[in-house]
Design brief:
Helix content of chain A: 25-40%
CATH class of the largest domain in chain A: Alpha Beta
Structural class of chain A: alpha/beta
Strand content of chain A: 5-15%
CATH topology of the largest domain in chain A: Rossmann fold
Distance between the termini of chain A: 28 Å
Number of strands of chain A: 12
CATH architecture of the largest domain in chain A: 3-Layer(aba) Sandwich
Number of helices of chain A: 17
Oligomer: homodimer
Number of domains of chain A: 2
Shape of chain A: elongated
Largest interface: A-B, 160 and 161 residues
Strand order of the largest sheet of chain A: 6-5-4-1-2-3-12
Radius of gyration of chain A: 26 Å
CATH superfamily of the largest domain in chain A: Crotonobetainyl-coa:carnitine coa-transferase, domain 1
Largest sheet of chain A: 7 strands, mixed
Order of helices and strands of chain A: EHEHEHEHEHHEHHEEHHHHHEHHEEHHE
């Protein structure tokens, strides 16, 4: 954990993936992120995978380094406490609907008279208020009908959903950015802001930002199916003689030259250039347009070499390539995990299960990186936060606990 | 364009997707983002799709609302100008290698004596300096071997690459966040920072943050293939009688009840509950574990209804569902694009092609949203930026242009 955001406190009322991710990134940069949940846990508290004791491995990774406050959010009193926490803290990340008790207006109305400066970031489904999730915005975006084998019939190919909830993770990172942008503006002007980020807009807007919306309109039709090939450049998966699948990509002249050398294809490429009347070194265009001829050459070469030999040659030529791992392989891969400084030692996870824990994606030479912190137990910081943020006495907090409005740690 | 980041200037030396995206998000929030490229264009200047006149629709969408400076970055003099621009501006986003002329140290060394406060955000491949791209880190992450039809043989299933460069877009958003985090720290302390964000760490770290790394280690094996089903909850794609494919998801009790009602499956579900001895309303667990039985019931119901009828019932029940579009359909869909305030009118794009242009993903009620700005022509702002940032006279700039060190707009 770095301390770039130390001094910043954020109330997060979240579920699922996008919203917790926004808080996670802030917490890993040193912010105090206080997740406030319903006392039985939010909608994501028992998301798969669960350990035998019923602890969610999803929850304990998406909520690392945060504090937890547990309140009865079905009661008016619990909701009032959350609104007051958000108002006094002044910074809120949530995916509750704008029409809920935790609207920007409701929170800002509880800030000091005449000086509401709340910054709230609200993750929505669609921009018009309709519900959406990663899976459904993905269906709308067009991507699932473009994925999958090249030889699937274009008109009848089934969609291929992505296992990675990419829209959630893009949205989470974007919301962390939007929060800091609004805070920067408040620092400069004193003004608060209501920031709404619809998951659906992130999906369709990313499709557009990538150039694909313009592309489809310019074509007046869908793009041809590419299978695992890279659009507009040279790259695809290949398989070595001993059955190892790997991806190669060449987007620069240097990468292309390296690939040709590593595969030992200099003469074959020269011959093909003569036959086709092109020069593949000229750029992405000729390599992409003639990709099927090139893919055949590369696959033939791959099928005549074992991975140990081929990967050594690819590395020696400085090419960009990678072996496909199953996720179980990836999870304990030395290069990816066990020897990677992104990961630190297992902290005291709520599940009791020990495994490498992530630090922030950003690394900063010369700054103390520290060790990853665990997720909290549900309600672990209820007492501390109600006392420090709202000035409640231990007697008052005890009464809230006795009455079921607040809950302390679910550790036992 | 919003003005949350007005007053902030950033030098961006970028190529491909992640790094330009970080600058794009800042520019759409009102920052002055000055992209400095080699005078013939960076490695991404002719990325597909190209118009007939050779303009990249990818480039003009990823660089919207930025300024462009074009220098001979193969010459020492051009490189010196870029280093000086980054030093005087104090804020840098780049994907050039740390060992290049644009290292953090080289730029900071050109800042005022004794007060280097540079904030640089550098996108890397792998953390150890090896090259990587979206396609290759994806291969390592394990996701491509989990995607694709459920009935593919687990041991021999081919990888399915994602057409969406998800790791690039997550990295881009994260880098915009990391930049603002480091700026917040500098505002508070005066300290600059070098921030490195490896694309590979974003991939493997996201896999871990989602809980999947812990899951694989806890299982001691890979997850079973799920096809298009949602992991740990109820959801999959179905097909109506008239051939419309759509995705449904139910993660909450309310969503589940709505789905059952919309599909008219109340009695069938009750009967299945009796047979299996479970209550599907109890949570994700029983719905996920018995998903194949449920999927059969839902697909049978879908196959007996046309989409117009079924979608009306799904909407009336407030369920979360979405029709799969091809990307060409999505690109001119009224709900997604033409009637969506995310999109504004076509600005004067370098390509001359008119199409809806994205605003920032974030929308802020009560703030002026403005209209989307176009990408610059290459070098369009060379003169303005060299004059304003480095104080060069028009005569000095003219000499740089004459000598081929600087280039003005490539408009003609």
């Amino acid at each position: 954990m770095y301390n770039l955001l130390s001094g910043l406190s954020v109330i997060e009322t979240s579920s699922f993936v996008a919203s917790p991710t926004a808080g996670l990134y802030c917490a890993q940069m040193g912010a105090e992120v206080i997740r406030v949940d319903h006392k039985e846990g939010g909608l994501d508290y028992d998301r798969y995978m669960l350990t035998e004791a019923g602890r969610s491995l999803s929850w304990e990774n998406l909520n690392r380094a945060k504090k937890s406050v547990a309140l009865d959010l079905r009661s008016g009193e619990g909701r009032e406490l959350l609104v007051e926490l958000a108002a006094t803290t002044g910074n809120l990340i949530t995916n509750l609907p704008e029409k809920s008790f935790l609207s920007h207006g409701a929170v800002a109305a509880r800030q000091p008279d005449g000086a509401p400066d709340l910054v709230s970031v609200r993750i929505m489904g669609w921009h018009d208020g309709r519900q959406a999730m990663d899976f459904t915005v993905n269906a709308a975006s067009g991507y699932p009908l473009m994925c999958g084998p090249e030889d699937w019939d274009m008109a009848n190919a089934p969609p291929v959903n992505q296992v990675l909830p990419a829209w959630d993770f893009i949205t989470g990172a974007y919301c962390a950015f939007a929060l800091l942008a609004a805070l920067r503006h408040r620092d400069a002007t004193g003004e608060g802001n209501e920031v709404r980020v619809p998951l659906g807009d992130v999906a369709i807007g990313t499709m557009a930002n990538s150039g694909a919306l313009a592309e489809m309109l310019y074509r007046g039709a869908d793009r041809e199916r590419l299978g695992n090939a890279i659009w507009g450049a040279f790259g695809r998966d290949f398989r070595s003689r001993d059955g190892v699948r790997f991806m190669v990509a060449a987007l620069t002249p240097k990468q292309w030259d390296g690939l040709v050398a590593a595969f030992g294809l200099g003469d074959a490429i020269t011959a093909l250039e003569g036959e086709l009347g092109v020069r593949f070194a000229d750029g992405d265009g000729p390599r992409f347009e003639n990709r099927h001829r090139l893919f055949d050459l590369f696959q033939d070469a791959a099928a005549n070499a074992d991975w140990a030999d081929l990967s050594a040659r690819l590395a020696a030529q400085g090419t960009t390539f990678e072996r496909y791992r199953t996720m179980h392989e990836a999870a304990s891969d030395p290069e990816l995990v066990t020897n990677n400084p992104l990961f630190g030692p297992a902290p005291a996870n709520p599940s009791g299960f020990d495994y490498p824990a992530t630090r922030s994606f950003a690394n900063m030479p010369g700054r103390d990186v520290g060790n990853p912190a665990p997720a909290p137990y549900l309600g672990q910081h209820t007492e501390e936060v109600l006392a420090n943020r709202l000035g409640l006495s231990s007697g008052a907090i005890g009464t809230l606990v006795d009455r079921g409005i607040a809950r302390l740690s679910d550790k036992e």
